[in-house]
Amino acid sequence: MRLVTSLAVAVVALGAVAAQPAAADSAYEAFGARGRAQDAKRTVDIVMRDNSYQPQRIQVRAGETVRFRVRNAGELLHEFNIGTAAMHRQHQREMQAMFDSGMMSATSKDAMAGMDHSRMAGMNHGAATMGHDDPNAVLVNPGQTGEMVFKFTRAAELEFACNIPGHYESGMVGNVVFTR
Ligand SMILES: [Cu+2]
């Protein structure tokens, strides 16, 4: 009975989050788009640790499609997300809600994978809306490697960052530098 109650609370919490930020979730369109693998002429390797990135700075060109190979060498769940500082702030609030609801844990992006999904139709919808799968972000479980192909259409002031609660503040942020 306790479980049912906490799930109901989680569904309500997620509904509230999913309802507002549709605009923020497509904010990346101001500077980029999902890339096609065949257009990527180079691969950038990123290593994530608890809580830092290697390298801390990447260089790209406007118009370039880059494949990012993102390895999580830490023991915690991490994200590689490209956006403006304002987008990261917004995303941090969404992530906090997903943690509060139990959908994600410190070590797994799918903490509820083993549970009864029939009861959580609304939550699955919420997850899709909030995008584990955004073109500008990849979430990687500890010990795993994720991939993302992104096209930088326009130069902008961008950071790559991890928006898991507490990680950005503890230094999980780097700069995207546009070169000519
Ligand atoms: Cu992180």
From TrEMBL:
* Annotated SUPFAM superfamilies: Cupredoxins
Q: Name one GO molecular function term.
A: metal ion binding
| Family matches, as InterPro entries | Cu-binding_ET (IPR050845), Cupredoxin (IPR008972), EfeO_Cupredoxin (IPR028096)
Q: Name one Pfam family in it.
A: Cupredoxin_1
- Give the record's keywords alphabetically: Copper, Metal-binding, Signal
Keyword hit for Metal-binding: yes
Task: Extract the signal peptide range.
Answer: 1-18
Does the record carry tRNA processing as a key word?
no
- Domain EfeO-type cupredoxin-like: start-end pairs: 30-83
**What name does the UniProt record give this protein?**
Copper-binding protein, plastocyanin/azurin family
Organism per entry: Pseudoroseomonas cervicalis ATCC 49957
